[in-house]
Amino acid sequence: MTYKVIIVDLDDTVLDFKAGEVKGLATVFKAFQTAAVDYEAWVTAYSKINHRIWREIEAGAATQPLLNDRFSKTFAQFDQVIDGAKAEAAYRQVLDANDAVVAGADTLLSKLNQAGYQLVVGTNGKTATQYSRLALTGFDRYFKQVVISQEIGHAKPSTGFFDHIFKLYPDNTKSEFLMIGDTLASDIQGANQAGIDSIWIDNDKHLGLVQAHQATYRVQSLSEILQILT
């Protein structure tokens, strides 16, 4: 298969989202908790709430109102009332400054770029955060197009998200597009629905969904992607 346009997810594909998330959650907890609460229990509660919220966003719900509620809902489980919007702003400030990258990401993007592929960011998330992190890491130099869910009003896995990218490359057929991502429910399902091939980076987070959303290729490291494409 001859690919020409490669859509690259950001979080936990080439940018290390978890590094910023850990720091951000610790910042929010320290600033807003007012009673004796077990931090690990709080993080577990947040993770469940956040997972549900992002499923709603991926289904088309407005992003910001939901994000402004995730910390207030988390603290509410521990009988604390906080300003969710302020907590979200504090968390976002830490995320925006996160310049951690996934091992091998710079090599992957550099070699794909040198090989002549058109690289496109295709990510869900907040516009300002993703642009900030691309600039901090220097990865912005590899991408001619940046497509972010908040900016275009569509989130993966919706066909609207991928249709936006297709319109940026009207001279390319769907067989020439490839999606690279770590999340089966958004990256791989979205690619399948859009009718394009995909590479799933198997990080053991979504094994229960493997049968539901089959990727064209399945890898466990970024170096394996180079073996497929170069």
Walkthrough of the structure:
It is a single chain. This protein has 230 residues and is of the alpha/beta class. 51% of the residues lie in helices and 12% in strands. It has helices spanning 17-32, 39-58, 63-76, 84-96, 105-114, 127-137, 149-152, 159-168, 184-194, 222-229; strands spanning 5-8, 118-123, 145-148, 177-181, 197-201, 217-219. β2, α6 (127-137) and β3 (145-148) form a beta-alpha-beta unit. α2 packs antiparallel against α3 and α8 (159-168) packs across α9 (184-194). The protein is elongated. The two termini are 12 Å apart. The mean pLDDT is 93.
Question: Which properties best describe this structure?
Answer:
six-stranded parallel sheet; 10 helices; alpha/beta; 230 residues
Overall geometry: elongated
Q: Structural class, from secondary structure content?
A: alpha/beta
Tally of helical runs: 10
Q: Can you give the mean pLDDT? A: 93
- Helix amount, in percent? 40-55%
Biggest sheet features = 6 strands, parallel
Termini separation comes to 12 Å
- SSE pattern, N- to C-terminal: EHHHHHEHEHHEHEEH
Percentage of residues in strands: 5-15%
Radius of gyration: 18 Å
What are the segments in which pLDDT stays under 50 over at least 5 consecutive residues? none
Strand order of the largest sheet: 3-2-1-4-5-6
Write down how many β-strands occur, each being a DSSP E stretch of 2 or more residues.
Answer: 6
